[in-house]
Amino acid sequence: MKFGPETFGELNAEDYDALHDPGTTDESVELIAEIAAGRRTLELAIGTGRLALPLAATGLEVHGIEGSPLMVAKLREKPGGDTVPVTIGDFADVDADGTFGHVFLAFNTLFNLTSQADQVRCFANVAKRLEPGGTFLVETFVPDAERTRSDQSLRAMKVGFKSVWLEAAIHDPVEQVIEFQRMRITEQGVRLVPLVMRYAWPAEIDLMANLAGLQLKHRWGGWRKEPFTADSRMHVSVYEKSVPVA
Ligand SMILES: C[S@@+](CC[C@H](N)C(=O)[O-])C[C@H]1O[C@@H](n2cnc3c(N)ncnc32)[C@H](O)[C@@H]1O
Hints:
Number of helices: 7
Strand content: 25-35%
Shape: globular
CATH superfamily of the largest domain: Vaccinia Virus protein VP39
Radius of gyration: 18 Å
CATH topology of the largest domain: Rossmann fold
Low-confidence stretches: none
Number of strands: 11
Oligomer: single chain
Largest sheet: 7 strands, mixed
Distance between the termini: 49 Å
Bound molecules: S-adenosylmethionine
Helix content: 10-25%
Structural class: alpha/beta
């Protein structure tokens, strides 16, 4: 399954806001604003502006990178959407103007880079764009050890009177890649919405950060700074670029 930076938007932009609400936007905005602390901020994969627009509304200078012009078109339609500078491109390149005090990458989107090499490249390029003392916040799920033991799955996501949404997945444990096919079956027909994710464990993400010269400063099990434990299903991790000793 071949996924480019624009593919997610081509498949999802039309109904992204309606179908992809993680239910954590308010607390995410609060924590990102606290960590950004008024510094120039960049969101990788800004999407339709779910986080960037409320952050910009607080007075924070927020820039974005996004692979899908269709997602950015949705952002532009919203109040304040014409004021956020967005570069169209692959977020692994982190090709935006200038340097930033804070960069963030939310909602498992690191895993939309479908190889370890691209994820490592992303961290290296973020480090180049960060000012000394700058921070990089990453939110991803913690891979489910039980699920990653099987090489395939099929599950019902939503069952209605005249519709059913199914999700089939093939798992490659060597590359840590899961290919999903979501099937929305209605009386009108079948809509296919594929997705590829290359998952990484928190320790591997820390190593990518370390290779780029970033150190883990905080790890929480949720946006409300819940402790990160063996039971945590997701993590919000903040990495810091050190300040050179004079
Ligand atoms: C799950 S959405 C997250 C959007 C937004 N950050 C949010 O939290 O609502 C993933 C986003 O990543 C973008 N994307 C995926 N791969 C990309 C890539 N390689 N370069 C740039 N954008 C990419 C998609 O177009 C989509 O907007």
